[in-house]
Amino acid sequence: MSFDQFLQYIFSGITSGAIYALTAIGFTLVFNATQIINFSQGQLVMLGGMTAVALHGAGVPLWGCFFAAVAIVALLAVGFERVAIRPLLRKGVLAQIIATVGASFVFETAVMLIWGRDAVGLPAFSGEEPLKVGGATIVPQTLWIVGLTLVIVVALQFFYRRSMFGKAVRACAVDPVAARLQGISYSRVVIFSFALTGAISAAAGVMITPISFMSYHSGSLLGLKGFAAATLGGLGNPVGAVVGGFALGIVEALGVGVVSAGYKDAIAFVILLLVLFLRPVGLLGAKVVVRQ
Amino acid sequence: MKAGTLLSGYLRKHAGFLIFAVVVMTIPAYLSDGYYLSVLAFMGTRFMMALGLSLLLGQAGQISLGQAGFVGIGAYGAAILTTRLGLNPWLAILAAAALSATIAGLVGVPTLRLKGYYLAMATLGVNEIIYILLVQLKPLTNGTDGITGVPALAIGGLDLGGPKAYHLVVWGVAVLMLRFALNLSRSRVGRSLRALHRSEPAAESLGVDTSYRKVQVFVLAAIFASIAGSFDAYYVHYVSPESYTITFSIILITGVIIGGLGTLWGALWGTLAIVILPEVLERFNGDVTNLVFGVLLIAIMVLWQGRGRGLLAGVKARRSKGLEQQAAPPGAEE
Fold this sequence. Notes:
The structure holds 2 protein chains of 2 kinds. By secondary structure, chain A is mostly helical. Helices cover 72% and strands 2% of the residues of chain A. Chain A contains 11 helices and 2 strands, in the order ααααββααααααα. Chain A has a two-stranded antiparallel ribbon. In chain A, strand 1 and strand 2 (136-138) form a beta hairpin. In chain B, 74% of the residues lie in helices and 2% in strands. Chain B has one domain (3-245). In chain B, strand 2 (154-155) and strand 3 (158-159) form a beta hairpin. Chain B contains 15 helices and 4 strands. Chains A and B meet through helix 4, helix 9 and helix 11 of A and helix 4, helix 5, helix 11 and helix 13 of B.
């Protein structure tokens, strides 16, 4: 592998890494608020992409599609929380897994029934003309993805560290009962977390669709990788989710260079298993993950 | 338990299983319609898969989202070993099952120490990887085209490829598996699984090696799935990767959930549901099937009181009082 090739792989790794990071943040937000792992997380990303494609097909301008998809999926996530998540809060892990898996089935099949089985794409946000960086090239969409991801991450940090409501959300993640005793509305925190997860996931879905096609079936693999990223960084730790996302993206891209593109999707899973074997708390460590 | 329940349980123990075994094994005597026989054969293998899953889910409270992957290993193992290496089909079934068991062990050991969703996510990954391998390992699996010309089962010179003979073989094995599962559930193993389902620390303090038990039942479920997959391959004479996606894994889970986790017999009713429901929905729009399954999964979990006992039993339990039943884990079988 020459240096230029290496650079090329790093660029592509950072691109998909940004998407994994956002998906991992989605897992983290829901997990911190509810202790639930949402098995339809990847489908929320898929829904974002598919909604934007449908709107774009209906003649809505690209940025309109972006914000509309973000808003629609955020609303959908709130509805999902009310219908399926709220009754599960006091139930066991098993019920939570099964219900969210059921939701992933509902999302996928609904998308298939409405928009068909074909993989679809979107035009890039600002042209397809590749930029030269060193001996490698970058498509402008990569800059959008990485840039917007960083904006989202920084905004989240500000929100959680500085705003009153952000602190309330963090308090609930630490101890919902104690937070409630301080007058924080747990229910509002959960709804908010779902809305935010829906919005961030949808943003990730819309941004990645111009680079890699989206179909009703893309969600499960995206979800798996997002979870691998979250676990790698340390489940429940938002900074870990970002670190894990980029690390996973880069390792995956280099793996494609070393092994073969056909096995690309297997790499995330191997990393997930290795982390669970060697260091279940992830790189940055987080909550105790062993049993109830 | 009251004496009356004990007695009726005792009677049911013999009657239920024996009636089921006799009925299912004599079906070919009065049914010769090829279509219904193949639907039944299809049901037989799905029942094996659901049974393994029912042990894992219902008894131990652990979930695998990747059973279709093990079914795929069983099917492809059978197809490859018999068509490429000319191995005896029965040996091929065992070899594929051994491979499935090994993979299940490798995945189960690191994940089953952790909370339930780690096994769920890891098995989802296993399923995805097995699918990728089936498509990518072209020299071995023939990629998306699949493998044709898988021979029928035979004993000595006796061909078991016909619908009636195959029915007897598949349901014979399924009945044996059910017996095995029922016995297991009543044994020390079954009791420790239900104990750890309810509280792992409590089970551990009573000397149950919870991680080991969980791995054990996970491996067993993988073996059941693998054997079922092999039988399918020998009946359909053809394997291709798209039969073994996560979608099928989730359909199997739907079956077990509809049938009810409280009893291994739930696997039977669940299998009926996932075989018949698609046939019915096909008359309107077959694509709706998975939507219905997804909604059912959510609805059953949302309405679930304590450890669910499936659709029918849930209604029954609600009518009869049963405060103590509400959160009770499944009882000993039969």
